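Notes to self after the call with IL:
- keep both proteins in one doc
- input above output, always
- annotate only the second one for now

Protein 1:
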Amino acid sequence: MLMMTKPRSSAHRSFRMLPVALAVGLACNYAIAQDAEQRADALRKDLATPESRIDVGAGVLSGGTRSFGLYNGMNQSIGYGSLDISLIKREEETGTWFRLNGRNLARDNRELRLEHERQGDWAYYVGSRHLTRNDPLQINTGLKGIGTDSLTVSAAAPRRNIQLAVEHDSFTAGLKKFIVGGFEVRLSFKQDEKSGDRLYGQGTPGTMNFLTEPLDRVTRQWELIAAYADPKLQLIGGYSGSSFENKLPSINVAGSIATLSPIAAPPSNQAHQFHLAGGYNFGDSGRSSFKLSRSVATQNSVFVVPPALPGNRETSPGGRVVTTLAYGDLSLRPTARLDLNAHLRFEDRDDQSKTAQYTAAAIPTATTALTTAGLTGINVPRSLKQLKGQLEAGYQLEDGYRLIGSLEQEQVQRNIPVQYRRVAYRERTDETQARVEIKRMLSETLNGGLAYIHSWRGGSDYVNDTYNQQTNQVNPLIWANRRREKLRLSADWIPEESWSVQFRGDASVDSYLGRNLGPRRGEGLLLSTDVAYQYSEKWKLSAWLVQERNLADQTTRSDVLAGTLGDNVIWRARLRNTTSAWGFGIKGRPTGALEVGAELGASADTAEHGIQRIGGTGTDPLNPSSLPTYAYHQVTFKLFADYALDRSSGLRADLMLDRRRNNDWTWQNFTYSDGTTVTIPERQNVVFIGASYHYRWR
């Protein structure tokens, strides 16, 4: 008999296959999880293993490179090599790092630094740097002896073009040792050697001769520090020293003004300082810090020509300045909404230099009061004491508002000089500043703040110049009575994850009171905007715009300028400086191996003098109203492409166009009395094309 078998349903077949599917799924999940863990482990190892890199390339520069190559080591239209290295090694077992970094090793602004460190135990470093500053001025002169301290000025000597440059060669070294218990000791040293020649001059109101200043100077700095730190207390203190050695202390000039030779150069000097600083944490509610230091600076170099005056046996100025500094602050949060901050700073700069007659005495007369060098010929030490304190409070209001208020007081005390002065003097100045600021998170994407700052500066009565009444009308800028009003607006806007906008605006007005001549009013305006935009995962854009305007309104008299009393012509100057800069950048990765970017930026700087006669009955041969406006413009375009050959290497190409234009009339065919001419090119256009290869390894 035949038996009929019932067909199996699809559900039944699926049920029978379920264990197989589960097994396969578990195996796949295990494989996926294992692969993810392996990738994560590889990523951790990749991040923990430092990357080394070397870049080698070359480029060609053409055009007017004087201003472009001021500091970057490329001031000629020739080919240049490039070499950058970054060697990093880490020993996993001991936590020891080795780093060797080199930048621009094939140029005149090269830098090399080696660091060796065992984490939590010791570290040391050594480094060197070479930097050349090439003077952008074009000089045609007959001066002889350039490069030495013996110069000869001659209008009849044949002239030639020269290029002035100053070279810096610096060396740094330091070490650090960690000691058990939070203690640490540091030692550092830096030496900078400066050599070359820079622009100099010699003359009187009727004669100006071109000179160069030879440089052969060494500046050294050293420091020994001990530090301690734990969760509450941090202390750091030690000794710092510096010295300046000028190996060419004077310049001897022949064939010129005999009374102005030799000319003294900056004298050698040294300084020593002991200091202690620290901080203490009062749990989560407050912190206090302090700093104490005392330094002694001396300058005892022998005079180039010791003064031959009766009763004066000094052969050096005997310079000695002792400075004491004390600082302390306290930050508290008594409640969750209230923050309090206070700080106090005191500085006493005691000038203990010798007081002696170093020049011949000369009593001013009615017609030479402003051109006479001095009355007694006796130097006067300049001592200064400064006390500055500030109180600030911040309170969190409702609806996301935060209110901040501060009060700052500064007092500066100076010693009164006993000798004749050209400008009236003030023994003490006091300045008070108050600030009120409110901030708010306007929304989840917009934050803003508005601050108002008011300050007032006054002080003691002026110590008048008893030899000339015109200078007693002058209100010197550094200690004139001044009222300042300042408004500051800031905002951060992030409308969405791909957008970011930052804005800041400052506006200020200064009013000067008390005297007729000198500064009368000042205005300042600063507007700054930065925008960043993530167009897609592959492309990013950025843009910025900055504008700054400053106005200084001041007055003077021709008899004060020229040194001839009774001229009585009053002039007004409205000095206006405007600086604008903008730029746009784009960076992206069109393919996985190719990254490209471009940046276009421009800046403009103009200075207007706005000089006009506003009073007086005399005539003025100086005619300062003829000063033209100064303008400087620069446009720079950069383009790069970086192509990855593989995970370890790649090629990069760079293109840069730089255009500069100025009408610097102060150096447009300026001619000295000896026939030397100095000028700066009105237009300078530079093109740079470069290519490099980089290799990375771990």
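Protein 2 (the one to annotate):
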Amino acid sequence: MAPPLLTLQDIHLSFGVTALLEGAELMIAPGDRVCLVGRNGSGKSSLMKIAAGLIEADRGERFIHPGATVRYLPQEPDLSGFETVRAYAEAGLAPGDDPWRVGVLLEALGLTGDENPATLSGGEARRAALARTLAPDPDILFLDEPTNHLDLPAIEWLEEELSGRKGAMVLISHDRRFLERLSRATVWLDRGISRRLEKGFAHFEDWRDEVFAAEEMEQHKLARQIAREEDWMRYGVTARRKRNMRRVGELKAMKSRLRSHGGPQGLATLEASEAEKSGKLVCEAKSISKSYGDAKIVDDFSVRIMRGERVGFVGPNGAGKTTLLNMLMGNLAPDSGSVRLGEGLEIAQLDQKRAMLKPEWTLAQALTGGGGDHVEVNGRTRHVAAWMKDFLFRPEQAGTPVHVLSGGERARVMLARALALPGNVMVLDEPTNDLDLETLDLLQDLIADYPGTVLLVSHDRDFLDRTVTRTIAFEGEGRWQVYAGGYSDMVAQRGSGVRAKTSDRARKDEPKDAAPSSLAPASKRKMSFKDKHALETLPGEIDALGTKIARIESELSDPGLFSQKPDRFAELSARLEKLTEERAAKEDRWLELEALREEIEAENAAR
């Protein structure tokens, strides 16, 4: 096994009197694909910054292999001081790096490089930062929430780009599908310490639940042991005459362990205020259209949304998802066509830009809308301190200004405000930004149990699959189409995911029979990540099956097995047949993929 590129041991870090990391560890070997997971505030970003050499731990050791190169993508990139995006991206190159890579990545990410950094949107700034981070092709990539503010085409392009890299990667992301497709190991930060699973994120939640169950069992055993020791102290014959001081000391230590065990970190408690039922019809749009200048945002779109439906809106940035949503909710008039709203609608809305939060507000003011110290939830008056606790805020944070809160904390504030509004239609515009995975789970449960109607804009494919019953997708040039089911159902029906929005100039230059453009250049055929991964892993799986088959054949070769242990003989024979079929299927699949690889290489070489 190759020596590690980077090692962190016994890392401790505190902010004031609050201990964030208490003995955390991290090891990165060449080619590792590690996802770093944990609750908001558990120290993931801090541990990543320590690993990247950007901040120092209070205590602990950091070793990086001499000559190893590292690049770090921050959550909030700072582009100030640069005249153009290209200048910002090229500033990340080391001596000897090829500037050509910057241009290639900027083009793939939909940027020219001539943009003024001061005028970029959040998504454009994230794309520029990705180009700067990826261009040098370092030994270790540290990516902190790389999918934030990216649309679906950009996320899927990034997955493909990262899957083809040979260097090591450490990822922090709230996007489950992104982590499942790219990670091969999981490091879980929980209560200041780290645990490592040599499997990707797809296995994390089962493993986490096993850890919690084992801890609960251990605490139960410890409590019973304490009860037995206390019983001995009170009633043991020896104890009545003279205490055994060693056992007294052990009892005190056990009680201290029981008290100090924090258990799993707290979960947010999500509860939505409910209004009276709306009418059966929520809204009906007939042939609505909307344009801004020559740009068609919505063209001749019709839909009917009924009470209780969960409808997702998907499309690239700039497609007009929010515009369409505002027209359906009566906040924006269409240029043509009509929108009829149902009776008794009360709309609770979450704004993706957090525009309803004033930076000068304190946390308490933000949660109460600017005044008072109580909030009304489902007809009950609750003190703001109790409402804060439901969303994982500490009482001492009540006076904290909004502008110093983290992205995840601001997201929880907006959720708290939206859920406190009485409504029977919940409109959520990018609600998953900056939320941790556990809070996402709770939000999914809340949407599932919500008695009203939910309209949801999101780029999170897994979240859409888990929550919506219909998907309205952007088809290009103002066209929108309604599909049954979530994102994966939509992909199955239309044969592809969401494509990048083609600019008006590019559309004019395209041949009329050209396929819609995607984010990644389509000049060369490529194998999918799934096929490439299968091509790499199938030989090992075939060899492993061969070893199992050989072992069974060896046992079956015993002439006395059939007469002495007929049940065992039958069991082994059935297993041998199954394994042989499985190996043959994997060999056929490998041959198909190898032929496909050679075909694609030949095609691309001929271009």
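Annotation: The chain has four domains: 6-204, 283-346+422-519, 360-419, 529-606. The chain is about 40% helix and 20% strand.
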